[in-house]
Fold this protein.
Amino acid sequence: MKLNSKQAVVLFCTFLICLSMNCQDINHSFRPGQIWPDNYGKHINAHGGGVIYYDGKYYWFGEYRLPRTEKDKSRYGVSCYSSTDLLNWKNEGLALKVISDTASLLNPGCLIERPKVIYNQKTGKFVMWFHHELKGRGYSAALTGIAISDKITGPYKYKRSLRPNAGVWPLNFPEEYKKSTLKDGDLKSGSEEWKLAVKEGLFVRRDFEGGQMARDMTIFVDKDGKAYHVHSSEENMTLHFSELTDDYLDFTGRYIRVLPGESNEAPTIFFSKGKYFMLSSGTTGWKPNPARVAVSRKIFGEWKYIGNPCRGTEDENMITFGSQSTNILPVHGKKNVFIYMGDRWIPENLADSRYIWLPVEWENGNPVIKWYPNWNLNKLK
Ligand code: GAL
Protein backbone atom coordinates (compact mmCIF):
# COMPACT_ATOMS: atom_id res chain seq x y z
CA MET A 1 0.00 0.00 0.00
CA LYS A 2 1.30 3.40 -0.96
CA LEU A 3 0.62 6.40 1.29
CA ASN A 4 0.32 9.93 0.08
CA SER A 5 2.19 12.60 2.03
CA LYS A 6 -0.89 13.65 4.07
CA GLN A 7 -1.58 10.04 5.13
CA ALA A 8 2.08 9.59 6.00
CA VAL A 9 2.01 12.67 8.29
CA VAL A 10 -1.17 11.43 10.02
CA LEU A 11 0.37 7.99 10.53
CA PHE A 12 3.59 9.46 11.89
CA CYS A 13 1.71 11.74 14.32
CA THR A 14 -0.43 8.80 15.52
CA PHE A 15 2.76 6.83 16.08
CA LEU A 16 4.25 9.68 18.12
CA ILE A 17 1.09 10.00 20.25
CA CYS A 18 1.03 6.24 20.92
CA LEU A 19 4.71 6.33 21.76
CA SER A 20 4.24 9.18 24.21
CA MET A 21 1.30 7.40 25.88
CA ASN A 22 3.17 4.15 26.25
CA CYS A 23 6.29 5.80 27.55
CA GLN A 24 4.48 6.57 30.76
CA ASP A 25 6.73 4.58 33.05
CA ILE A 26 8.94 7.53 33.64
CA ASN A 27 8.89 7.65 37.41
CA HIS A 28 11.02 5.05 39.13
CA SER A 29 10.88 6.39 42.67
CA PHE A 30 8.94 8.81 44.86
CA ARG A 31 10.68 12.17 44.91
CA PRO A 32 8.76 14.25 47.47
CA GLY A 33 8.61 17.95 46.69
CA GLN A 34 9.68 17.55 43.04
CA ILE A 35 7.59 17.98 39.91
CA TRP A 36 5.61 14.72 39.47
CA PRO A 37 4.96 14.14 35.76
CA ASP A 38 1.83 12.30 34.61
CA ASN A 39 1.63 10.23 31.40
CA TYR A 40 1.71 13.44 29.35
CA GLY A 41 4.79 14.71 31.19
CA LYS A 42 2.73 17.39 33.00
CA HIS A 43 2.89 17.93 36.76
CA ILE A 44 0.01 16.07 38.42
CA ASN A 45 -2.78 18.48 39.33
CA ALA A 46 -4.69 16.69 42.14
CA HIS A 47 -4.17 18.60 45.37
CA GLY A 48 -5.70 17.94 48.79
CA GLY A 49 -6.39 14.52 47.35
CA GLY A 50 -7.17 10.96 48.24
CA VAL A 51 -6.46 7.62 46.61
CA ILE A 52 -8.73 4.59 46.38
CA TYR A 53 -7.94 1.13 45.07
CA TYR A 54 -10.53 -0.43 42.80
CA ASP A 55 -10.43 -3.40 40.44
CA GLY A 56 -6.66 -3.67 40.09
CA LYS A 57 -5.86 0.04 39.96
CA TYR A 58 -5.32 3.02 42.21
CA TYR A 59 -7.32 6.17 41.51
CA TRP A 60 -6.10 9.53 42.77
CA PHE A 61 -8.72 12.28 43.08
CA GLY A 62 -7.76 15.82 43.99
CA GLU A 63 -8.36 19.51 43.52
CA TYR A 64 -7.69 20.55 39.95
CA ARG A 65 -6.20 23.99 40.52
CA LEU A 66 -6.36 26.40 37.62
CA PRO A 67 -2.88 27.16 36.30
CA ARG A 68 -2.07 30.87 36.68
CA THR A 69 -2.38 31.46 32.95
CA GLU A 70 -5.81 29.80 32.75
CA LYS A 71 -8.62 32.33 33.04
CA ASP A 72 -11.53 30.07 32.13
CA LYS A 73 -13.06 29.17 35.48
CA SER A 74 -15.40 26.63 33.90
CA ARG A 75 -12.44 24.27 33.53
CA TYR A 76 -12.26 23.85 37.31
CA GLY A 77 -13.19 20.79 39.38
CA VAL A 78 -11.88 17.48 40.65
CA SER A 79 -9.21 15.66 38.67
CA CYS A 80 -8.67 11.93 38.49
CA TYR A 81 -5.53 9.93 37.70
CA SER A 82 -5.08 6.15 37.59
CA SER A 83 -2.07 3.95 38.26
CA THR A 84 -1.04 0.38 38.89
CA ASP A 85 2.26 1.16 40.63
CA LEU A 86 1.52 4.42 42.52
CA LEU A 87 4.42 6.09 40.70
CA ASN A 88 3.17 6.46 37.14
CA TRP A 89 -0.21 8.13 36.77
CA LYS A 90 -2.50 8.39 33.77
CA ASN A 91 -4.52 11.57 33.55
CA GLU A 92 -8.20 10.53 33.41
CA GLY A 93 -9.42 14.13 33.12
CA LEU A 94 -11.88 16.02 35.29
CA ALA A 95 -14.13 13.61 37.20
CA LEU A 96 -16.31 16.44 38.51
CA LYS A 97 -16.66 19.77 36.78
CA VAL A 98 -18.22 23.01 37.91
CA ILE A 99 -21.59 23.71 36.33
CA SER A 100 -21.91 26.78 34.09
CA ASP A 101 -25.29 27.80 35.46
CA THR A 102 -25.63 30.63 37.97
CA ALA A 103 -28.52 28.77 39.62
CA SER A 104 -26.18 25.94 40.61
CA LEU A 105 -24.22 26.16 43.85
CA LEU A 106 -21.40 24.46 41.96
CA ASN A 107 -21.05 27.31 39.47
CA PRO A 108 -17.63 28.54 38.27
CA GLY A 109 -15.94 30.59 40.99
CA CYS A 110 -16.95 28.26 43.82
CA LEU A 111 -14.24 26.36 45.71
CA ILE A 112 -13.91 22.59 45.76
CA GLU A 113 -11.35 21.25 48.23
CA ARG A 114 -10.09 17.93 49.58
CA PRO A 115 -12.34 15.63 47.46
CA LYS A 116 -12.54 11.98 48.54
CA VAL A 117 -14.17 9.14 46.61
CA ILE A 118 -15.52 5.93 48.16
CA TYR A 119 -17.18 2.92 46.59
CA ASN A 120 -20.49 1.67 47.93
CA GLN A 121 -20.69 -2.14 47.74
CA LYS A 122 -24.47 -2.18 48.21
CA THR A 123 -25.44 0.33 45.52
CA GLY A 124 -22.46 -0.19 43.20
CA LYS A 125 -22.03 3.61 43.02
CA PHE A 126 -18.94 5.74 43.51
CA VAL A 127 -19.60 8.59 45.88
CA MET A 128 -17.51 11.75 46.04
CA TRP A 129 -17.58 14.09 49.03
CA PHE A 130 -15.76 17.43 49.07
CA HIS A 131 -15.42 20.67 51.00
CA HIS A 132 -17.50 23.21 49.10
CA GLU A 133 -17.37 27.00 49.42
CA LEU A 134 -19.69 29.28 47.49
CA LYS A 135 -18.64 31.79 44.88
CA GLY A 136 -17.70 35.17 46.32
CA ARG A 137 -18.20 34.09 49.92
CA GLY A 138 -14.67 33.13 50.94
CA TYR A 139 -14.74 30.25 53.39
CA SER A 140 -17.93 31.28 55.16
CA ALA A 141 -20.41 28.76 53.73
CA ALA A 142 -18.48 25.75 55.17
CA LEU A 143 -20.50 23.17 53.26
CA THR A 144 -19.87 19.59 52.28
CA GLY A 145 -20.79 18.53 48.75
CA ILE A 146 -21.82 15.17 47.30
CA ALA A 147 -21.50 13.84 43.75
CA ILE A 148 -22.14 10.36 42.42
CA SER A 149 -21.10 8.19 39.47
CA ASP A 150 -21.53 4.67 38.08
CA LYS A 151 -17.99 4.74 36.73
CA ILE A 152 -15.00 5.38 38.95
CA THR A 153 -13.44 7.96 36.63
CA GLY A 154 -16.74 9.82 36.31
CA PRO A 155 -18.31 12.02 35.15
CA TYR A 156 -19.66 12.54 38.69
CA LYS A 157 -23.11 14.06 38.93
CA TYR A 158 -23.39 16.79 41.53
CA LYS A 159 -26.24 16.10 43.96
CA ARG A 160 -26.18 18.77 46.66
CA SER A 161 -24.21 20.59 49.34
CA LEU A 162 -25.15 20.90 52.96
CA ARG A 163 -24.08 21.55 56.49
CA PRO A 164 -24.11 18.30 58.45
CA ASN A 165 -26.30 17.34 61.36
CA ALA A 166 -28.82 20.20 61.46
CA GLY A 167 -31.04 19.94 64.53
CA VAL A 168 -29.11 17.12 66.23
CA TRP A 169 -26.71 17.20 69.14
CA PRO A 170 -23.42 15.30 69.11
CA LEU A 171 -23.54 11.95 70.96
CA ASN A 172 -20.89 13.14 73.41
CA PHE A 173 -22.46 16.51 74.26
CA PRO A 174 -23.39 16.85 77.93
CA GLU A 175 -26.84 18.12 78.91
CA GLU A 176 -25.43 21.23 80.59
CA TYR A 177 -23.75 22.29 77.32
CA LYS A 178 -27.11 22.10 75.55
CA LYS A 179 -28.75 24.30 78.16
CA SER A 180 -26.05 26.98 78.36
CA THR A 181 -27.24 30.41 77.24
CA LEU A 182 -23.73 31.72 76.53
CA LYS A 183 -23.54 33.09 72.98
CA ASP A 184 -20.84 33.92 70.45
CA GLY A 185 -20.25 37.65 71.01
CA ASP A 186 -20.68 37.45 74.81
CA LEU A 187 -16.95 36.87 75.22
CA LYS A 188 -13.80 38.34 73.71
CA SER A 189 -12.75 36.11 70.84
CA GLY A 190 -9.46 34.35 71.66
CA SER A 191 -9.67 34.99 75.42
CA GLU A 192 -9.32 32.09 77.92
CA GLU A 193 -13.06 32.30 78.75
CA TRP A 194 -13.91 32.19 75.06
CA LYS A 195 -11.66 29.15 74.51
CA LEU A 196 -13.38 27.34 77.37
CA ALA A 197 -16.79 28.29 76.01
CA VAL A 198 -15.82 26.93 72.58
CA LYS A 199 -14.77 23.64 74.20
CA GLU A 200 -18.10 23.62 75.92
CA GLY A 201 -20.01 23.88 72.69
CA LEU A 202 -20.50 27.62 71.95
CA PHE A 203 -20.47 27.05 68.17
CA VAL A 204 -22.34 23.74 68.28
CA ARG A 205 -25.24 25.63 69.87
CA ARG A 206 -24.92 28.55 67.41
CA ASP A 207 -25.07 26.19 64.40
CA PHE A 208 -27.56 23.72 65.86
CA GLU A 209 -30.47 24.69 63.63
CA GLY A 210 -28.71 25.39 60.34
CA GLY A 211 -26.19 22.54 60.60
CA GLN A 212 -22.59 22.30 61.72
CA MET A 213 -19.73 23.87 59.75
CA ALA A 214 -17.76 21.49 57.52
CA ARG A 215 -14.40 22.60 56.14
CA ASP A 216 -11.26 20.40 55.78
CA MET A 217 -12.51 16.86 55.49
CA THR A 218 -11.87 13.22 54.79
CA ILE A 219 -14.00 10.09 54.54
CA PHE A 220 -13.08 6.92 56.38
CA VAL A 221 -14.66 3.55 55.53
CA ASP A 222 -14.44 1.12 58.42
CA LYS A 223 -13.99 -2.68 58.26
CA ASP A 224 -17.76 -3.22 58.61
CA GLY A 225 -18.48 -0.96 55.61
CA LYS A 226 -19.75 1.95 57.73
CA ALA A 227 -18.41 5.27 56.46
CA TYR A 228 -17.61 8.39 58.46
CA HIS A 229 -17.34 11.99 57.32
CA VAL A 230 -14.56 13.61 59.37
CA HIS A 231 -14.33 17.38 59.18
CA SER A 232 -13.10 20.56 60.83
CA SER A 233 -16.11 22.23 62.38
CA GLU A 234 -16.90 24.97 64.91
CA GLU A 235 -14.75 27.62 63.15
CA ASN A 236 -12.02 24.97 62.72
CA MET A 237 -11.73 24.60 66.49
CA THR A 238 -13.14 21.07 66.80
CA LEU A 239 -13.35 18.00 64.58
CA HIS A 240 -16.66 16.24 64.00
CA PHE A 241 -16.92 12.56 63.08
CA SER A 242 -20.29 11.94 61.42
CA GLU A 243 -21.67 8.55 60.45
CA LEU A 244 -22.99 8.24 56.89
CA THR A 245 -26.09 6.34 55.82
CA ASP A 246 -25.60 2.89 54.25
CA ASP A 247 -25.72 4.36 50.72
CA TYR A 248 -23.03 6.92 51.75
CA LEU A 249 -25.23 9.76 50.45
CA ASP A 250 -26.36 11.36 53.69
CA PHE A 251 -25.73 11.70 57.42
CA THR A 252 -27.44 9.40 59.92
CA GLY A 253 -27.38 12.09 62.60
CA ARG A 254 -24.98 10.13 64.80
CA TYR A 255 -21.86 12.19 65.34
CA ILE A 256 -19.24 13.02 67.93
CA ARG A 257 -16.94 15.94 68.66
CA VAL A 258 -13.27 15.02 68.73
CA LEU A 259 -10.50 16.97 70.51
CA PRO A 260 -12.74 19.99 71.28
CA GLY A 261 -11.04 23.36 70.98
CA GLU A 262 -7.78 21.82 69.71
CA SER A 263 -7.86 23.43 66.22
CA ASN A 264 -7.27 20.46 63.93
CA GLU A 265 -7.40 20.56 60.13
CA ALA A 266 -6.46 18.27 57.24
CA PRO A 267 -7.65 15.13 59.06
CA THR A 268 -6.84 11.69 57.75
CA ILE A 269 -7.74 8.38 59.40
CA PHE A 270 -6.36 4.87 59.15
CA PHE A 271 -6.72 1.60 61.00
CA SER A 272 -3.83 -0.65 61.95
CA LYS A 273 -3.39 -3.48 64.44
CA GLY A 274 -6.60 -2.90 66.35
CA LYS A 275 -6.27 0.88 66.62
CA TYR A 276 -7.60 3.87 64.74
CA PHE A 277 -5.06 6.58 64.06
CA MET A 278 -5.70 10.14 62.96
CA LEU A 279 -3.06 12.38 61.50
CA SER A 280 -3.97 16.04 61.25
CA SER A 281 -2.47 19.52 61.12
CA GLY A 282 -2.94 22.74 63.03
CA THR A 283 -4.75 25.69 61.48
CA THR A 284 -2.30 28.01 59.74
CA GLY A 285 -3.89 28.20 56.27
CA TRP A 286 -1.48 27.34 53.44
CA LYS A 287 1.53 27.52 55.76
CA PRO A 288 2.73 24.19 57.15
CA ASN A 289 2.75 23.52 60.90
CA PRO A 290 3.55 20.51 63.12
CA ALA A 291 1.44 17.43 62.37
CA ARG A 292 -0.25 15.58 65.23
CA VAL A 293 -1.28 11.97 65.65
CA ALA A 294 -4.18 10.87 67.81
CA VAL A 295 -5.26 7.31 68.55
CA SER A 296 -8.45 5.57 69.64
CA ARG A 297 -9.63 1.97 70.09
CA LYS A 298 -13.03 2.90 68.63
CA ILE A 299 -13.96 5.32 65.90
CA PHE A 300 -16.58 6.85 68.22
CA GLY A 301 -14.22 6.56 71.18
CA GLU A 302 -11.87 8.72 73.22
CA TRP A 303 -9.22 10.15 70.91
CA LYS A 304 -5.88 10.91 72.57
CA TYR A 305 -2.85 12.70 71.17
CA ILE A 306 0.36 10.71 70.90
CA GLY A 307 2.49 13.53 69.52
CA ASN A 308 4.21 14.72 66.37
CA PRO A 309 4.91 11.82 63.97
CA CYS A 310 7.84 13.53 62.21
CA ARG A 311 11.35 12.27 62.88
CA GLY A 312 13.49 14.88 61.17
CA THR A 313 15.41 17.90 62.38
CA GLU A 314 13.60 20.20 64.79
CA ASP A 315 12.91 22.63 61.93
CA GLU A 316 11.56 19.86 59.69
CA ASN A 317 9.30 18.55 62.46
CA MET A 318 7.85 22.04 63.00
CA ILE A 319 6.58 22.10 59.41
CA THR A 320 5.94 18.39 58.72
CA PHE A 321 8.72 18.40 56.12
CA GLY A 322 7.02 21.38 54.48
CA SER A 323 3.64 19.69 54.05
CA GLN A 324 0.08 19.37 55.28
CA SER A 325 -1.61 15.96 55.49
CA THR A 326 -4.32 14.96 53.07
CA ASN A 327 -4.52 11.17 53.18
CA ILE A 328 -2.94 8.02 54.56
CA LEU A 329 -2.94 5.51 51.76
CA PRO A 330 -3.08 1.77 52.52
CA VAL A 331 -0.89 -0.06 49.99
CA HIS A 332 -2.98 -2.78 48.37
CA GLY A 333 -2.04 -6.38 49.14
CA LYS A 334 0.31 -5.44 51.97
CA LYS A 335 -0.77 -5.63 55.58
CA ASN A 336 -0.24 -2.56 57.74
CA VAL A 337 1.66 -0.75 55.01
CA PHE A 338 0.77 2.89 54.49
CA ILE A 339 1.96 5.97 52.66
CA TYR A 340 1.65 9.47 54.09
CA MET A 341 0.26 11.86 51.47
CA GLY A 342 0.76 15.55 52.10
CA ASP A 343 0.56 18.78 50.14
CA ARG A 344 3.33 21.35 49.95
CA TRP A 345 1.15 24.30 49.04
CA ILE A 346 2.35 27.09 46.78
CA PRO A 347 -0.40 29.67 47.39
CA GLU A 348 0.79 32.04 44.62
CA ASN A 349 0.30 29.26 42.09
CA LEU A 350 -1.66 26.42 43.67
CA ALA A 351 -1.49 24.27 40.52
CA ASP A 352 2.26 24.05 41.05
CA SER A 353 1.92 22.84 44.67
CA ARG A 354 4.01 19.75 45.33
CA TYR A 355 3.27 16.37 46.84
CA ILE A 356 5.06 14.98 49.86
CA TRP A 357 4.57 11.23 49.89
CA LEU A 358 6.57 9.39 52.53
CA PRO A 359 6.48 5.88 53.96
CA VAL A 360 4.70 5.43 57.29
CA GLU A 361 7.12 3.71 59.63
CA TRP A 362 6.51 2.40 63.15
CA GLU A 363 8.14 3.21 66.46
CA ASN A 364 6.83 1.40 69.56
CA GLY A 365 3.54 0.73 67.78
CA ASN A 366 3.06 4.36 66.76
CA PRO A 367 3.28 5.73 63.20
CA VAL A 368 6.25 7.96 62.40
CA ILE A 369 7.42 9.75 59.27
CA LYS A 370 10.99 10.29 58.13
CA TRP A 371 12.27 12.24 55.17
CA TYR A 372 13.54 10.40 52.10
CA PRO A 373 14.34 12.54 49.05
CA ASN A 374 14.09 9.49 46.84
CA TRP A 375 12.44 6.19 47.78
CA ASN A 376 10.34 3.35 46.44
CA LEU A 377 7.95 0.69 47.67
CA ASN A 378 10.77 -1.70 48.68
CA LYS A 379 11.10 0.54 51.72
CA LEU A 380 7.66 -0.64 52.81
CA LYS A 381 8.18 -4.36 53.41
C1 GAL B 1 -5.87 25.27 54.87
C2 GAL B 1 -6.68 24.08 54.43
C3 GAL B 1 -6.66 24.03 52.92
C4 GAL B 1 -7.24 25.35 52.41
C5 GAL B 1 -6.46 26.52 52.99
C6 GAL B 1 -7.02 27.85 52.57
O1 GAL B 1 -5.83 25.39 56.25
O2 GAL B 1 -6.13 22.90 54.97
O3 GAL B 1 -7.39 22.92 52.46
O4 GAL B 1 -8.57 25.45 52.78
O5 GAL B 1 -6.44 26.44 54.39
O6 GAL B 1 -6.35 28.89 53.23
